[in-house]
Amino acid sequence: MKNFTKQEIEEIYHTPLLELIFRAASVHREHHDAKKVQRCSLLSIKTGGCAEDCSYCPQSSRHEKKMKAEPYMDKEQVLEEAKKAKANGSTRFCMGAAQTRVRNNKDFENVLGMVKGVRELGMEACVTLGMLTKEQADRLKEAGLTAYNHNVDTSEEYYPKIISTRSYQERLDTLEAVGDAGISVCCGGILGMGESDDDHISMLHTLTKLKTAPESIPINALVPCDGTPLGNRPLISALDLARMIATTRILFPKARVRLSAGREVLTISDQALCFLAGASSIFAGDKLLTTPNPEWDRDEMMFQKLGLTAE
Ligand code: SAM
Ligand code: DTB
Ligand code: SF4
């Protein structure tokens, strides 16, 4: 991959918007079939009760409103959901757990079984389980895991304003363990948490410097959740979202750039701009982890109107 300086990224990011989107759309078409958008489905396999204090997250146990902490789901139930997702056209199944880190216990063995099961359905398997060690990453690889999602979320500079219970370096260490184990890295961030353009640029610079380049890059728009410190934040504009997606596409021509959380409030035209800017993947299904996402039918209609096909 080309090494971009922070100043080069800044120049790309601040290109006049339509020029930027045109450039990103051209890069996108050189490397991908721009009609195709991948559908990924998400399932929260362990919900609520998380000890971390991420200000955006409804699953933290440190905020005003606390979700009920649930145990891990059964493997059979999870695989039922994966089958439904496949039947609805998803090619990747991503399982998330509200926890700080992976522990070597029966829950981890359970997750390894889920990963195997999803792969046997012929789907890509992704998990997001918090921090992990290289040994744990090796075991996930052995079970057939395709990708591990672990977001840096924002810039290193802004990170302490959002999360106080863990460090940016810990995020980077986990990402290194994932890449070293030969698992694809899925890493992106959240927009609309009060950060500046410079934070967006700095986050992208961090992503370009990861030891293992990310295979997929989720760009989430903050879903403001009641009872979290960011519950009252105004929504980020679709134009800012498109600017970020376009810059990401130019920096990572081959990656899957995922238009992730926040689609519920976007119009089809907003999303069309994001696809034009190089988004090549979405989360499909009426729920993300705990918050609503467009229904299958609504997305199907969008695909038809925009002439998109599922990957
Ligand atoms: N606990 C693990 C971790 O934090 O790495 C995995 C699950 S965590 C819910 C996965 C990601 O969801 C976070 O890194 C964050 O990017 C995203 N996320 C959580 N709450 C969100 C919200 N309200 N809006 C947008 N994205 C959110
Ligand atoms: C990612 O970047 N976005 C997804 C997935 N990775 C795990 C999670 C979005 C969560 C939105 C808030 C919720 O539904 O709880
Ligand atoms: Fe826990 Fe992950 Fe939510 Fe942070 S983002 S509170 S680590 S579930």
Textual characterization of the structure:
This protein has 311 residues and is α/β, with parallel strands linked by helices. It has a single domain, classed as TIM Barrel (Alpha-Beta Barrel). It is 40% helix and 15% strand. The chain contains 11 helices and 10 strands. It has helices spanning 6-13, 17-31, 75-87, 106-120, 134-142, 159-162, 168-180, 197-209, 238-251, 268-276, 296-306; strands at residues 36-46, 92-97, 124-128, 147-149, 184-186, 189-191, 216-221, 256-259, 281-284, 309-310. Strands 1, 2, 3, 4, 5, 6, 7, 8, 9 and 10 form a 10-stranded parallel β-sheet that branches. β2, α4 (106-120) and β3 form a beta-alpha-beta unit. The longest helix is centred in the first third of the chain and has 15 residues, at 17-31. It starts with 5 loop residues before the first helix and ends with a strand. The mean pLDDT is 97. The protein binds S-adenosylmethionine, 6-(5-methyl-2-OXO-imidazolidin-4-yl)-hexanoic acid and iron/sulfur cluster (SF4). S-adenosylmethionine binds next to loops.
